[in-house]
Every structure is written in C-alpha cells, then in structure tokens.
Specification:
Blueprint lengths: L2 H29 L4 H19 L11
Amino acid sequence: MGNRGLLSVDLGLRGAVVGLSLLIACVALRDRRDSAVALLGAALAVAAAASAIRSAPTFPSPWQW
C-alpha cells in the first residue's frame, strides 16, 4: 500500500470518527437534554469531531509555525 492508499485509509477512518462522534452528540442531546452531563458529553463529542477534521493531513494550516 502506497502513500495514496494510506491517505485514503486515514481520511476514511477520520470520516468514520467524525460521523460517530456527531451521532453520539445527537443521541446524548436527544435523550437527556436537561442533564448537564449529557450536554458536556455532547460538547466533548463535537470537539472530538472538530479535532479529527482539523488534524487531517490535507487540511490547510492557517499559520506556518
């Protein structure tokens, strides 16, 4: 498997993580909207999805440190 194959696998797994994280956030908000723990769990799941998107190798970097 070459560089393109590994990049495809990486992006596919990141997409799956984003989808599952957003699904967990939606289910947590749907089931327990008034619970502080569910709100924090949903926020954590959304943050994990954003982190997976932002750390992708093809995502443009705003600053070159």
